TrEMBL record:
Matches recorded under InterPro entries: Mycoides_lipoprot_LppA/p72
Signal sequence, renumbered to the chain: 1-30
The entry's keywords: Lipoprotein, Signal
Protein name: Lipoprotein, putative (LppA family)
Organism per entry: Mycoplasma capricolum subsp. capricolum (strain California kid / ATCC 27343 / NCTC 10154)
Region (Disordered): 25-112
Biased composition range(s): Basic and acidic residues: 33-78, 86-95, 103-112
Lineage: Bacteria, Bacillati, Mycoplasmatota, Mollicutes, Mycoplasmataceae
Amino acid sequence: MKRTTKLLLSILPISSISLLSLVSCSTTSSNNKKPEENRTDKTPEKLPENSKKPENAEPNDQHEPSKSDSEKKPDASDNKNNIKPKKPDSERENTDQPQADQPNHHNVDFSDLEKIKTKLSYKSIKLYSDKDPRSAWFSLKNDLETFSNIFYRENKDLKNKYNLSFENNEPIYDFLKGVIDNVKVKFTNNKHSKIISFTLTDFKKTNTTTNNKENYIKEKDELDNKFKGLYPSLVAFMLLYSEDPQSYKSLEQRTQAIGFEDLYYSNRNLFNNEYPGINQVTKKLLLEYNYDLSKIYKDRIIQAKFDDTKGTLGVKIEISNNQTEPKITKEPTLIKEFNIKGFRSIDFKDENKNVLSMTLLQSNLKEMIKKGSLKKTVELLRERNNSFGVKMPLEQVEGTRLKDELFKYLLVNVDDNSYHIYNPKQTLSLQKNSKNDNTSILGLAGNMSIYPFHTRITKESINKIFITLAKEDDGKLKVTIDFEVIIPIYSVGYSDLKSPGTGASIPLTLKVNSSALID
């Protein structure tokens, strides 16, 4: 834009330059005003032909004024008669500076960071000081609070002035000195930031310069076909359960529901013949192991993450020494992260591509009309001639009793038309009751599931309930009910998953429709 302005200034007469300056002044008013309000009385309706922008001119990257600048400037609409065109020399002088390099009125002074102490000791934090630098960093990089406490203890005058965050870089480990070097930390204030490199000290010192644990486990190039049809949340929970079954048993809610044991081995009642079960053998199939090193090392999954919206799984594995092998007793424990792609993901655009749906049987709807929460509603609507064929909202009228009944009667369908690995041969539901022998999918406490994937379904998940009455030719009354069941699809970061349902989530809407004829 500035090069274009110079070109125009060199070829336009003085009168046109004044007009151009006037137009430039009028465009500095606040962005939220309409164009008509920003025009001055002296602005002509059309610019002279020779002042039009050349067709091959570069696009103008408008530099929008900051909020505080806008507040300081007087409103252009209040000063229509006071606007003075800039002189050509003044205009030419301003355009000499690149637009992107113009000074910012809110620059933050980072001079107080030049004298800070960048060598910080973790000696008093036993959780980390007992670990070698690499092992400590795997946990420490997710523990900004501890770092902040140590930093502000050494730099009290900076407390609450900056927001701190670790940069995503690999630091340098000095095992002989017990030091983590090149830890980059971003200091942010008023959207401006500065990155400073720190040295963290007083971790466990080791004489080992090489650690073959790095070569013990590697990621595979492609996911085994046995697992491509499974959701990663199911796999994540089962991998952690298989490492320590007793500590995860407390997460289960009820007996007549799908729990960990139902998924540990191959289960023909829930899957097809290809499902191998998810147990301690599974990690050997998901990752590539060096079996020569398995004689001297042992491993266990200590944390997992999953994203059912993308079909990805991550596992954090602790690799330690086999105590019966004296040659490697000095090698430090290693914690490595592995990311596995290629699992099934939720389709938010086409619910028919997902395995989960729900049904309200005609017989159960009739029960609700004759004896349940819909009895009075149907009787009242039947008496009104103008209510037939009209979709009537019910949620606020009937209250919680209607949702209670719907939750009790809803059946769960798990239909796998893509991979065919999910294949239940039993009737599934949300709630087990004395009138049926169904198995609930909500096997975890808090109305949560593992199968077919991890989610939470409660009575409050039922929304937008509508009822429609229609007269049939034979004199019978057709009652149709429509509603939605909205459930969260989770994306969870690294944890032991013992507090399920706490990650980020995206809602998935399941639509349910049921009709019944009554006399």
